[in-house]
Amino acid sequence: MLSWIDGRPAELLSVRDRGLAYGDGLFETIAVSGGRPALLERHLARLAEGCVRLQLPLEATSLRNELLAFSQQLGEGVAKLILTRGDGLRGYAPPQPAMTRRLLLGGPKPAYPSQHAEQGVHLFPCATRLAEQPLLAGLKHLNRLEQVLARGEWQDDEHAEGLMLDAAGRVIEGVFSNLFLFKDGTLLTADLSRCGVAGVMRAELLAQAATLGMACEVRDLDLAELLGADEVFMCNSLYGVWPVRRLRDRDWPVGPLTRKLQAIARDLLDC
Amino acid sequence: MLSWIDGRPAELLSVRDRGLAYGDGLFETIAVSGGRPALLERHLARLAEGCVRLQLPLEATSLRNELLAFSQQLGEGVAKLILTRGDGLRGYAPPQPAMTRRLLLGGPKPAYPSQHAEQGVHLFPCATRLAEQPLLAGLKHLNRLEQVLARGEWQDDEHAEGLMLDAAGRVIEGVFSNLFLFKDGTLLTADLSRCGVAGVMRAELLAQAATLGMACEVRDLDLAELLGADEVFMCNSLYGVWPVRRLRDRDWPVGPLTRKLQAIARDLLDC
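Output (structure tokens, whole complex):
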């Protein structure tokens, strides 16, 4: 499978990379169609914010060019971009000057059943809670053990995604998706300033919904509010939008507002 | 530098390793003297507990033999053992069956100034707080961005270690050490069931102190209790014990009980 390290074909990485040692880095998972990366500007913007917050040097222009060249070569699939703080000596102290290492890994698009998008999905209620860490909240960093534990909670095919709460019981997101709900015509999604990953599709749908004149709110949500929603859906930058049909014994129909945003997401990913 | 992957010399790792992708794994940092790993049983015990909690398969006997052979070859220095969940497809779901990958990295012993042990150290008061995640608390897992951020808070040589609190303000540990204090002859260290790394030297010193007839308590500690302590020290499995002399404007002497435990730690590491 296609993979580059610092712009050159390579399948192997130094065992002393700090991405391995500490999860000291960031990643993006980017849909590629017709040789072009979807939602490129949003992926680059999130990465730039992550680099500021982790104090990782970023050469944005050369990274963009590299991503474009990689996508061209990949053609169709998923480009996973990983930035790490490069090789480390022993110890947590960030090396000075820091060297950012770039990895690009190509793969096929995930083979999700088409029913997920068409008929909607059931959510598994994960027992794993997200810890509150405002310094890392929102970032797609390499410390993802909570997601590994949560995704390990179910093996059946009935549940396409899981619902994750924070330690205080707030509704935050899916294991690999963000969550939205509609209530009385207003689009709602969780505030991610304490935990969670601020997905690029989430950002894009919020922007598009506002453009369409929909009322949008980003704030704390509790389980009662989720269960009282008129429509619920999950989203990410690979599959677009999945309507949510069931959580435990609560059923939802696939609503018209969800379908509207799903069509927008589909257009964005068929770039 | 000496490094093995799954028992064979190798300096390079698959870019698709889940240790890199998600920090999906554990590590131990083991002092090696005269070809022998110090505190081996405690390192293996912590690793075994981590493997149970992360559901990583572990062949304990062959791992022990590999560590012994690696230490023999290393002679003097530090052996860093990393276990990861091996290569992943895309997605958080743990592969079934899981394959545990073993990495062993050799390096020199850290060159800490001898004054740290002899005269004691100053602690930097870290602003980075530890998030509460009971599912991961105590483990030495590969999700260590909090420590990277905390260690990045100071560059001066005045502070040899930092003090980390949890989000609620409890005193937990150092960035790469555990913290102990003595108050009225009782040895106290933080409860690590919400966050923190349960160090092998911490476990060993607790056991040895109990054998010596010292009263020991593992429980929540707040900053006032730390500041009111008679003696304070840090410990880990590489340097042993460092007396703490200062935190902000609070000064401590190097006390006799700290010296007693320091001597025990020194004996353990000169194995």
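The helical segments of chain B are 18-22, 40-54, 60-74, 114-118, 145-151, 200-211, 223-227, 256-269.
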